[in-house]
Write a structure and sequence with these properties.
This protein is α/β, with parallel strands linked by helices and about 525 residues long. The protein has 2 domains: about 375 residues, TIM Barrel; about 110 residues, Nuclear Transport Factor 2, Chain: A (Roll), CATH 3.10.450. The strands form 5 sheets. A 7-stranded parallel sheet has the order 8-7-9-10-11-12-13, with helices on both faces. Helix 4 runs parallel beside helix 5 and helix 6 runs parallel beside helix 7. The longest helix has 28 residues. The model has no long low-confidence stretch (mean pLDDT about 95).
Amino acid sequence: MENAVVIVMGDRILEVGVRGEIEIPEILPVVEVSGKWIVPGLIDAHIHYFQSGGLYTRPDVIDLRGWRPYETEMARIEADLGETFRRYLASGVTSVVDVGGGYWNFGVRDKANEQLYAPRTAVAGPLVSTVSRPQMDIGDPPIIEVDSPVMARELVRKQLEYDPDLIKIWFIVPRDGNFTPNLPIIEATIDEAHAAGVRVAVHATQLEAARASVKAGADVLVHSVDDEAVDEEFVSLVRESGAIYTSTLIVMEGYGEVLGGNVRMTNVEREIGDPDVVMTWSEVPMGDDAEEIRTRSRARLERTMAVMQKNLKAMQDGGAIIAAGTDAGNIGTLHGPALHREFELMAEAGLTPREILVDATRNAALVFAAEPEMGTIAKGKFADFLILDADPLADIANLQKIHRVVKGGVALDPANILAPSPETVVQRQVEAYNARDIEAFLSFYADDVVVRRLPSGEVAWDSKEAMRPRYAKRFAENPELFCTITTRIVHGDWVVDHELVTGVIDRPRVRAVATYEVKDGLIQNVWFLPVHD
């Protein structure tokens, strides 16, 4: 709607209409956002809080417990939950569906739903699994193997005590492809959950397993089919059943790139993703089987991505309900910004920006709840929406251009939701340098920053204000000044840049190595080492 008005009272939307045709209560303040676009808050319909996205988070996939104990990995994940929540909000994701974790997951849901700076969270408990994953059992396993319908029903009943939003089945097909012996387990799980009024989400990535799951009553298929092309009968089955088909394209890319040794990150992933998680991606073992791991991972990605994208397009065109989801937390799939890469892959599959937007809002909300209170901007719904600087229907990438995140009626500046990563801080000060904007440049430095020259260690400046005269003079006298980063290394709070500066009068090329230490979103220490030709 053009000239739209959204009236918010408390945490709910009171009314939606067009300026001049809707009465605005006089007691409410008016926030003018002319020239902006308003869309519902984004929803990631498939994540896992119990996984970090780092290399050590799935010892059943690549077992590195000798390098980092799984207990250490889980302790870090729990300690960083607050930051993880904020990464979602900073990405414009106001709701998520955690499709399975240990019983601790229910406590995570409570913690998230009590906070402003966290996405609304729906959860499933431990996965009802057809296989065992003992590597992740340290007392509260996220995956529990069941070997009979009776055991499946018992596990469902135990989870019902925690009021789950979904029951999740991990339907892993044996190598011989014969999953028929496991069907009674799938059917019993669904029957027991449905009898209690709880919906069931099923991990079934093979076409025939997915088909059998929907016939058994699955409410959500949490992945795209990746082994063969979906047929018309399957598309009709999913559409007519009302089952929801979740995209999760990026998770395959994440594994393929990290284990394949070929990581490519988007700008939003660099800005919002957890740098400590990203750092682990370069730690893939380089032993005798390293090349085999890389080759196998790259081949799987190449083989499955095309199938998944083709199937997603067929399901979308066939009228099935598609929900955007990432499977964030798996190796290579970052909590928060991964959803924007998912959108890019969905667009590559042939989906339009409008289709993707609906899949990531209205449809994804249907995974969160059968009768969701979010996902559309409508009377009575939660006031969860984004104010954008550009039209997302012109380019889905415009969903990254967030002016404000509104959560429960509270408008949040995305720049204040999450402290920027050290790399982002350093890069932005480089951009301000190149713009010769002294105020913007100095804004990225702590008041008491210390800048040293190497190798002597001599202190060049001991405060931000001490830097001002030198850089103001340089910016004024060198209109062609430009710094190019030829190499960059990021390690936690540290950023090391190999710089090439051009446009300095009488010095056409200046090279240096700059090492930055970033704390709380500001550059605290700098070491400059000139590089002589």
